[in-house]
Write a structure and sequence with these properties.
Blueprint lengths: L15 H22 L3 H25 L4 H26 L9 H27 L8 E3 L3 H17 L4 H19 L4 E3 L12 H4 L1 H11 L1 H26 L9
Helix pairs in contact: 1-2, 1-3, 2-3, 2-5, 3-4, 3-5, 4-6, 5-6, 5-9, 8-9
Length: about 260
């Protein structure tokens, strides 16, 4: 006898539209890997961002249409692992982390360890998210979300490929970016999820104008602006934590 019961709002079965969007996320994650193996790093970076769009749509479409299922949640998690766990690690490794070996065997080991560390961190991040989804505060993520971490790595590779970052400096920077993104995923820093903002919520006109400005800036230099946006989001939580720690003043001892 199975004592575990599914939530009342979760259905059984497979629905076409949300799972089709999840398949799109999986496809572009797979395509990013293939493009990186073929040396098309710009396409690989773009593919990861397209996968993010599909990943953002599938859950929202499922909730809006009332087609959330256990299958859909599991499928979404597996697709995320491919698109935001394996794909960024392989893309970064194929771009240049593998060439660290040219500067010594130790650098080579650090290179593939950094790529594997990122993939393992993404897997643990997704597993922790699934395990705590029922009780977690929906307003915040514990640890950097895997799509945001993937965006940092993908944008960096895209940026490095565009501006021809070569040599040991570029390779060490790739190793650092990949490892840092992985470490932030398994950290306990709180990141705003923006899920408390409903799609139909009214906002001020001045705030809405920020959206076209952001898109215009991204259009000027996509890899640079995307890397800046997601890197800023990634370091925001550690900076907030550090600011709060420094703001805490030790209590003065009470004198008789």
């Amino acid at each position: 006898m199975n004592l575990q019961q599914e939530p009342a709002n979760t259905r059984r079965g497979i629905y076409l539209l949300p799972n089709l969007l999840t398949t799109g996320c999986l496809f572009f994650g797979f395509y990013a890997i293939v493009a990186a193996i073929d040396g098309n790093f710009e396409r690989a970076g773009i593919a990861i961002f397209v996968a993010m769009v599909f990943d953002g749509l599938d859950g929202r479409v499922a909730r809006l249409t009332g087609t959330e299922t256990v299958f859909g949640k599991e499928f979404d998690s597996l697709a995320d692992m491919v698109a935001f766990g394996l794909a960024p690690a392989i893309v970064c490794y194929q771009w240049g982390v593998a060439r660290i070996a040219e500067y010594g065997a130790a650098w080579g080991r650090f290179g593939w360890i950094a790529a594997f560390f990122y993939a393992a961190a993404a897997a643990m991040r997704l597993a922790r998210f699934n395990a705590r989804a029922a009780t977690a505060d929906k307003r915040y993520f514990e640890g950097l979300p895997s799509p945001s971490a993937a965006a940092i790595v993908a944008a960096f590779v895209w940026l490095a490929h565009k501006y021809d970052l070569e040599g040991l400096y570029g390779l060490v920077l790739a190793f650092t970016v990949t490892a840092t993104a992985g470490a932030l995923m398994v950290s306990r820093f709180s990141y705003p999820s923006f899920k408390d903002r409903a799609a139909g919520e009214r906002v001020r006109y001045s705030r809405f104008l920020i959206v076209p400005v952001v898109f215009a800036l991204i259009a000027l230099d996509p890899p640079l602006m995307l890397f800046g946006l997601f890197a800023g989001y990634a370091i925001s939580a550690p900076l907030v934590w550090l600011w709060r720690r420094t703001r805490r003043r030790p209590r003065r001892p009470i004198r008789d």
